[in-house]
Write a structure and sequence with these properties.
The protein is an alpha+beta fold. It has a single domain, classed as CNF1/YfiH-like putative cysteine hydrolases. Helices cover 21% and strands 23% of the residues. It has five helices and twelve strands.
Length: 242
């Protein structure tokens, strides 16, 4: 399947065969039902096709707010309804229930316990990085199910790459402590490295942090990008296989 028809990109955590992950592309259509009226009409069919292709039938969705809200024991959301529960992360131990994160430049961050018995999914925009949500979301997941950060694996999905994450007003938008990840000459932030560093500082093993280094801004033929003016959203999904 070439880039013209690729509907999703699968990912498998090494040594955790019971957990599946997938990152959709523009060829799967937008999964958002709240960005524009056209989405509300087309999204249910796009959602069902994507889940059918993955052999799934249920998912849990959030109304993402660029905050630090986290839902323990995620709840199933009907495919033809927009999410009502406001949060930017959720977790579950329920088999067959996929956790959905919607993005178009922000980082989708998926977690799996090393034994495959628990999973979590986070929406991490740059504001999430500024408030250290990768770490607080990880802690919430571990607290919910009695895990240590070193027992968790993570994968970051397609998102705004280091060369495209421009912040011309860095001093007004970021606290000074984030200067180490900012290229002052190019006015860009390495959000990918920042997320990994935040997870390692929170106790996750560096060799258990993976990333799909695919820039949504630089690959418009594959991904929706907010900075390019796209209104669509792609899906990032993680589930425990039945």
């Amino acid at each position: 399947m070439d880039s013209q028809t690729l509907a999703y990109i699968p990912f498998a955590f090494p040594g955790v065969p019971s957990v599946g992950c997938a990152f959709s592309t523009v060829h799967a259509g937008s999964v958002s039902m709240s960005v524009c009226p056209e989405d509300t009409l087309q999204a249910p069919a796009n959602r069902k096709r994507l889940l059918d292709a993955l052999g799934l039938s249920r998912w849990a969705e959030l109304r993402q707010t660029h905050g630090e809200g986290f839902v323990v024991d995620a709840r199933q959301t009907p495919l033809d309804q927009a999410a009502e529960l406001e949060a930017d992360g959720h977790c579950t131990r329920e088999k067959g229930l996929a956790l959905l994160i919607k993005t178009a430049d922000c980082q989708p961050l998926l977690f799996a316990a090393e034994d495959g018995a628990a999973i979590a999914a986070l929406h991490v925009g740059w504001r999430g990085n500024a408030m250290n949500y990768p770490a607080s979301g990880l802690r919430a997941f571990c607290s919910a199910y009695g895990l240590e950060p070193s027992q968790v694996l993570a994968v970051r999905g397609p998102s705004l790459g280091p060369a495209a994450a421009e912040f011309v007003n860095f001093d007004a938008e970021w606290p000074p402590r984030f200067a180490a990840w900012f290229d002052a000459q190019r006015k860009t932030m390495d959000l990918w490295r920042l997320t990994k560093d935040q997870l390692v500082t929170a106790g996750m093993r560096a060799d258990r942090i993976f990333g799909l280094d695919l820039c949504t801004y630089s690959l418009p033929e594959l991904f929706f990008s907010h900075r390019l003016g796209h209104v669509g959203r792609q899906a990032s999904l993680i589930w425990i296989k039945p």
